[in-house]
Amino acid sequence: MNAPRDIDEEDAELLNAYRRASASDASGPSPGVREAVLAQVRRQQAPAAANDDQWRWKAVAGIAVMGIIGLLASRGWRQAPPQAYSVATAPAPMVAGSPSATSAPAATRMEARTVIDANTAETALLSARQAAPALSEINAAPPVFADLNAPALPAGLDRAAAPQGAGALATMRKFGVVGPSVLSVRRAVTERFGSLFLPQGSDQLNLVIILVNESGEIERAATEKVAASNLSPDDTVVAGRFKALGANPDQLSSPGFTRLVEEHTVAGTPDLVLLVQYAWLR
Amino acid sequence: MFRMAENGAADEVLMSRFAGGDVLAFETLYRRHELKVWRYFYRSVSNQATADDLLQEVWLAVSQAARRYRPSARFTTWLFTLAHNRLVDAHRRARPMQSLDVARDDGVAWADKLPDVASADPANQTESSQNMHILLSAVSALPPEQRTAFLLQAEGEFSVEEIAHATAVSFETAKSRLRYARARLQQVLQEQV
After folding, report:
1. Residue B8 neighbours by CB distance under 10 Å
2. Which of A16, B18, B89, B105 could bond B26 through an S-S bridge, CB–CB 3.0 to 4.6 Å?
3. Between A and B, how many CB-CB pairs are < 8 A?
4. Is A172 in CB contact (< 8 Å) with chain B?
């Protein structure tokens, strides 16, 4: 063990005493924590294709969002300049050099300039009309945001996850930007299943299997008894338990396992334990 | 800057390998530092389940941040800084109305509240294991800021400057916290002699 910097001899002795004491202390992480962490990291890393897929989804989602913004922006742009709209609906324009222009009453220089400018605007608008539906058509059937989402969103990405309002957090979580917290699982389970804690050392313990939604609420749950003595690392996160709740692996994210302990308040009584297998619904 | 671990590659190299998809590198890192990080949490929260959860959270955070990791500092400095931030978050969630900054840096008020661990069970005081237990209890009973400073140094091998940076205080404040922590622990040790 390397000696830390900034310490004198007396402090080094104290640190050594602490480290000796720490080394003699048998306490350590609960069995299952290491396996849960490593299993989750393997799942995250293991198939490179899955990672690539995740990036592809992120890219597709990003393009979809950009597309939506583009559509909304173009819609806003079309509605924005009322002058152009009035030109488009105005009576037939006078074109400099055309028969109507020459037969028209004498115009001042200023009026002539106005005619030319209106003609330029008209030409531009006609070009734009060929590429886009008429403004009246857009106003007749105003697209709602959800409809704009429909063609752009990739399969599997539901509209509720679109990045707007409260859904933004869900979307971030869905794409791994925000990691779900084990502590929120602990809180939710303790609130709802507080009666299922059993004394440590019991032959059997209660295991709660939960599926948590994007808001951190328990959406589906089941309980079963497990033999405490036989709880091996392989038993910690079992896909079959999630299937029993009607969820397939591809619907889940961030599965994990935790062990809740309510410490005894009376001397001589054992701590109370509840096991939890959890995952987030995509 | 980086130390080669006793067995195998340096932490920073392992982290880079993990960022490139080598899960075994992560496992090696995890096994190498698991216990230190867990002890940092456990001595801070004195609760096995919470320490387990925080351990799980911090390593998952490490795995998620691997691609962004840049070895500009020791890996353990980065790791324990992540751990410290998780701990602060957990404290805030658990005690939303109480700030960690409330405690005094001079340590007097907190020290008065410390359990009199040195006088516990005098019949066994000569036993080395009992002394060790007393020392660990004294660490857990330190005021939060002093305990954090001491544990970052003892488990994370932080320098005073690194402690100051990780806990967002000045160098002098970090040094002062360490000094009070050591003084209290020295006092406990001397009472055992």
Report:
1. 12
2. B18
3. 119
4. no
Helical ranges in chain B per DSSP H: 11-19, 23-45, 48-65, 75-94, 108-113, 128-141, 144-154, 160-166, 171-192
Name the stretches of chain B with pLDDT < 70.
1-8, 94-127, 193
Given an 8 Å threshold on Cβ–Cβ distance, is A183 in contact with B90? yes
Whether residues B142 and B176 share a domain: the answer is yes
Concatenated DSSP letters for A35-85?
HHHHHHHHHHHS-HHHHHHHHHHHHHHHHHHHHHHHHHHHHHHHHS-HHHH
Residues near A259 by beta carbon (within 8 Å), at least 6 away in sequence: A30, A32, A273, A274, A275, A276, B49, B52
What sign does the dihedral A239-A243-A247-A250 (CA atoms) show?
A: positive
Block residue for tokens 């004491």: A21
* Whole-complex ipTM: 0.78
Overall pTM surpassing 0.95 (yes/no): no
Residue of B164, B167, B187, B47 lying closest to B112 (CA atoms): B187
Measured between alpha carbons, how far is residue A147 from residues A140, A171, B51, B140 in Å? 15, 19, 47, 58
Closest residue of A to B6, CA-based? A1
Q: Which of B93, B159, B189 sits opposite A14 (nearest CB)?
A: B189
Among candidates B31, B56, B159 on the partner chain, residue whose Cβ is nearest the Cβ of A6: B159
Give burial (CB, 10 Å; 0-12/13-18/19+) of B38. Answer: buried
Residues B115, B69 share a domain: no
Q: Which residue of B has its CA nearest to A2?
A: B157
Residue B149 belongs to domain spanning? 107-193
* Same domain flag for B89 and B116: no
How far apart, in whole angstroms, are the C-alpha atoms of residue A164 and residue A91?
Answer: 43
In single-letter form, the type of residue at position A25 comes to: D
pLDDT tens digits for range A171-201: 444 444 334 567 677 778 887 888 888 887 7
Half-sphere exposure of A38 (CA within 13 A, CB side): 18
Name the domain boundary from B74, B97, B120: B97
Q: For residue A150, what are the CA distances in angstroms to A75, A78, A137, A281, B67? A: 17, 22, 20, 22, 33
Are the C-beta atoms of A280 and A253 separated by less than 8 Å? yes
Q: Is residue B88 located within the same domain as residue B137?
A: no
Asked, for residue B156, whether it belongs to a domain, the answer is yes
